[in-house]
Amino acid sequence: MKAPWYVDAVFYEVPVYAFFDTNGDGVGDFAGLTERLDYLEWLGVTCIWLLPFYESPLRDGGYDISDFRSVLPRYGTVDDVRTFLDESHRRGLRVIADVIVNHTSDQHPWFQEARLPGSPLRSRYVWSDTPDRFPDARVIFTDTHDSNWTWDPVAGAYYWHRFFDHQPDLNFDDPAVQDEIENIIRFWLTLGFDGLRLDAVPYLYERDNTNGENLPETHTYLKRLRAMVDTEFDDRMLLAEANQWPDDVVEYFGEGDEFHMAYHFPLMPRLFMALAQGDAGSVISILEDTPDIPDGCRWGIFLRNHDELTLEMVTGEERQYLWDRYAPEPSMRKNVGIRRRLAPLLDGDRRRIELLHALLLSLPGSPFLYYGDEIGMGDEHLLEDRDGVRTPMQWDSSPTAGFSTAVPQDLYLPVVSSPGYSPAAVNVAAQRDNPGSLLLWTRKMLDLRAGMSALGAGAFRLVPASDSAVFAFVRSDADATVLVVANFSDAPVTSDLDVDLAPTATLATAPGTSLEGTTITLDAHGWAWFRVEHPFTVIAARHGD
Ligand code: BGC
Description:
Blueprint: E1 11-14, H1 16-19, H2 30-35, H3 37-43, E2 47-50, H4 78-90, E3 94-100, H5 109-114, E4 127-128, E5 149-152, E6 157-160, H6 175-191, E7 195-199, H7 216-232, E8 237-240, H8 246-249, E9 261-263, H9 267-277, H10 281-288, E10 298-302, E11 309-310, H11 316-326, E12 333-334, E13 337-338, H12 342-345, H13 350-360, E14 366-370, H14 428-432, H15 438-450, E15 459-462, E16 470-476, E17 481-487, E18 493-496, E19 499-500, E20 503-509, E21 514-516, E22 519-522, E23 527-532, E24 537-538
Parallel strand pairs: 1-2, 1-14, 2-3, 3-7, 7-8, 8-9, 9-10, 10-14
Antiparallel strand pairs: 4-6, 5-6, 11-13, 12-13, 15-16, 16-17, 17-23, 18-22, 19-24, 20-23, 21-22
Helix pairs in contact: 6-7, 9-10, 9-11, 13-15
Bound molecules: beta-D-glucopyranose (BGC).
Beta-D-glucopyranose binds at residues 60-61, 63, 100, 163, 167, 199-200, 241, 306-307.
């Protein structure tokens, strides 16, 4: 049976506002996205993930929605979305969108109405006479809040919010909320989206004496959404944003009856950890601790996204280590994380950027690229909140980076100006013409991956290596077996691999790699993908296989 489309998809995350501005108002729009589909098709990604584009006061990048069924006028209209979907589909590209189910903006008419004394909508949100209920629920935005309750003088009560205080949480005990959210999902799927990322799903319900995360009631409701999608639509995908430990996040797959996909949040910081320590141990142990997932389900894996690089899924000691290594300046830290982009995090070092991408594109899971990382875009960590990683896409070397015809002061956010990362230094046009560029390297890797189905749906096995800096695994399906090796250390390494196989071809590699029998030699931060002969035996199989 053919694997579902998301199993070998390569996702590209992009906010509408950041990609391309066609009407010169300084903000990206749907017409701009449509115009730049050529680029995405050329690059070789297969599914676009759009950040929220709905009516919103934009106090949380659009995750604060004031009308779920609308498009923010500065981005375009519902018809523009339809055109964008049609054009994407015509090129064989899929598109998913973010839907925020946990909360609304405080400007949403539901909340404005619910605040009024005696309102019939009161029960759409969660209220309390005291700020003491649910004391075990952690605060997520630790930089700006110390409580999940905020007093509303109009309502004469406290309202509950897991994120910003301008984002009241919806009350899923209210059947009207359950129906409304289901209908919103129906609306966007009917318009033609191939899937939806449901934001912040662990927090839908609140219960006394719990931490309010991953509650059984939440799973019951999410299964109801999945059943609706399966009954009413073909070939669609639901993706869970659940920043949780592996044992908790696998619950969001249910028994194949909840989400099709979920992000592997704990893997991501461990890739950075392994690189900082020059040791593969942390990556290997999180993969060993990751339970198997039901057939037809799939991890979403990523290096960076529009948020801070979250350090919630590591220990306190590991977090401090990662902060010290990757966010030496306090302004680089945000909440429990780091607000920097991939290239500056890795000191602009091509070898490390390529190493992490070579793993992102071969580990088990569908990779999510973050717009601009394919050209090594920089960040502006002194901007507010997480704005520093959401700056305009850099198309050319002009002052507005070819993103807009507006004057630079009128852009929704300034173009990156930090040394080495300004449009003059980093842009699509220059890299397209340069055979040695990161952009062309990324495109080549995507092309290779597309021709190697084992890297999509293939089975995964860790391969033990004698040197702890070396991370090795195989991916295999009926067509091929691929051996992936990587050296996390900044020194060259020679290591034995505990695997019985014979390579037939080097698919891709960093310079300085050689494989003699089962002895691999890799340069500092070297890596390689080898095609190897069938059948093969992994001497020590992954725990649980
Ligand atoms: C989104 C964030 C947002 C938060 C609250 C998250 O899961 O990724 O960007 O700030 O939800 O809405």
